[in-house]
Specification:
CATH topology of the largest domain: D-Maltodextrin-Binding Protein, domain 2
Helix content: 25-40%
Number of domains: 2
Mean pLDDT: 90
Largest sheet: 9 strands, mixed
CATH architecture of the largest domain: 3-Layer(aba) Sandwich
Structural class: alpha/beta
Radius of gyration: 33 Å
Strand content: 15-25%
Length: about 300
């Protein structure tokens, strides 16, 4: 018994006609197909079709054989595909990481840079806190990440964007009447500060407070933007966050710019100096396509 016998049998069973199966499905002659079916019946030892002037119908033996024939062919097809996959060279994986929330802006741009390589690589994407991204880069878990320039890691960084800080506040807060927030406006307000988990952002905010002689003790600490927005809404507090927060604000939270020259926090692409990935090398060669004007 050969695979073609099973294919011929299934075609006849599904069309109910030797002639239709031969001409429309198998592109062979009807006499040749009839011989193949008889050979199959001889090997099985049972009549699989009952023949009449109206066509052919499956016998009880034919109905039992049909399910197994379909299964056998599907398993053969699966085996062939598995063999083809195993014979192909393994696709290189390129692991991208993003500071949570930044993937909305930067993932499409990163994929555009990678566009010529996409048919030959598998791209994985994850989002984390910035220090966790730096650690993953240093450990070789990521090839490239969009993060803050975290100190204490043997990584290279390239600035792609400088984000101004903005003030987050409840949508019904009295300060929403102002077009820009002055340093003095923070006095007497509940203040929400990024913790040391967001080291770079924390330091920029603390420096802004010190430069403006604001002796403010934060009442709440947050590790990420989602937590900041939640606390702003629930405690009626104020928080300083990078302006990318504007893309993610819920209805209950609004933002206002800072008056004057607002402090900025850099968004960088980071990578390990020891990473020899050719895809990374190509990405870095085209990284200028990512960099915002004026950076």
């Amino acid at each position: 018994m050969e695979l073609r016998h099973l294919r011929y049998f299934i075609a006849v069973a599904e069309t109910g006609s030797l002639t239709v199966a031969a001409e429309k499905r198998l592109h062979t002659s009807q006499p040749s197909l009839s011989r193949q079916i008889r050979d199959l019946e001889d090997e099985v030892g049972a009549e699989l079709f009952s023949r009449s002037a109206r066509g052919v119908e499956l016998t009880a033996a034919g109905k039992a054989f049909l399910d197994h024939a379909r299964l056998a062919l599907s398993q053969v097809d699966a085996a062939m595909e598995a063999a083809r996959r195993a014979a192909r060279p393994a696709r290189q994986v390129f692991a991208l990481g993003f500071l949570t929330g930044q993937e909305m802006t930067w993932l499409p741009r990163a994929m555009q840079v990678l566009r010529d390589e996409l048919p030959n690589i598998d791209v994985t994407v994850s989002s984390h806190y910035s220090p966790d991204l730096a650690d993953a880069l240093a450990r070789g878990k990521l090839d490239l990440a969009f993060l803050r320039a975290e100190p204490g890691f043997d990584l290279d960084y390239r600035v792609v964007s400088r984000e101004k800080l903005v003030t987050l506040m409840p949508s019904d807060h009295p300060l929403t009447a102002r077009s820009a927030i002055r340093p003095v406006d923070f006095i007497g307000e509940t203040f929400i500060l990024a913790t040391n988990k967001a080291t770079v952002l924390h330091d920029v905010i603390v420096r802004y407070l010190q430069e403006n002689n604001l002796d403010i003790k934060p009442e709440h600490g947050v590790d990420n933007l989602a937590m900041a927005m939640s606390l702003v809404a629930s405690t009626r507090g104020l928080a300083l966050m990078p302006e990318y927060a504007n893309n993610l604000l819920p209805w209950s939270v609004v933002s206002r710019p800072l008056e004057g020259d607002a402090p900025t926090v850099d968004l960088v692409i980071g990578y390990s100096k020891s990473n020899a990935s050719p895809v990374l090398k190509m990405f870095l060669a085209r990284a200028q396509e990512l960099i915002a004007p004026g950076v």
